[in-house]
Amino acid sequence: MIKGIGIDMVELSRIEKIINNKSSFVQRVLTNDEYVLFQQLPHKRQVEFLAGRFACKEAFSKAWGTGIGSVGLQDIEILKEDNGAPKVTKSPHEGTVFVSISHTDTFAVAQIILEVD
Fold first, then answer.
1. Is 62 a catalytic residue?
2. How confident is the model at residue 81 (pLDDT cuts 50, 70, 90)?
3. Is there a binding annotation on residue 58?
4. Which of 62, 87, 90, 93 is an active site residue?
5. According to its record, what are the GO cellular component terms (predicted)?
6. Domains of the chain with CATH codes
7. Residue 3 burial (CB < 10 Å; 0-12/13-18/19+)?
8. Which residues share a beta bridge with 108?
9. Please, which contacts does 81-87 make with residues 24 or more away whose CB atoms are closer than 8 Å?
10. Which helix (H) or strand (E) holds 100?
11. Calpha distance 11→14 (Å, rounded)
């Protein structure tokens, strides 16, 4: 049974400005393991990665029904499956979490579906 659905979209240009001007934001959004992946990427992919992860965490908080604040950015972690697909590896949700991330040249969008048994 679906408990919640959330979606969020982020402008890549906004994230790029934040990376260039306020580097502390990156570590506020990303967990340590996410940050390791982030550091391995070229700049363009770093922007897409951070935008996608931020959108995922916002989408999760919407699906959770609380918004960011009751659930923090560090409470949610999105790493990768062996095939490269995103996977939520840490969250306060005890059921299954489905995640999808997509990018264009200007936006990143993420959707989260929370399922309970």
1. yes
2. very high
3. yes
4. 62
5. cytoplasm
6. 2-115 (3.90.470.20)
7. middle
8. 10, 103
9. 86/52, 86/56
10. strand 96-103
11. 5
Span 39-47, average pLDDT: 95
| Residue of 97, 101, 94 whose CA lies nearest to 114 | 97
- Whether 44 is catalytic: no
Q: How many CA atoms lie within 13 A of 1 on its CB side?
A: 3
> How high is the pLDDT of residue 35?
96
Cβ neighbours for 29, distance < 8 A, ≥ 6 positions apart? 50, 53, 54, 57, 73
One-character DSSP codes across 62-77? HHHTS-BTTB-GGG-E
- Torsion sign (Cα): 88, 76, 93, 62: negative
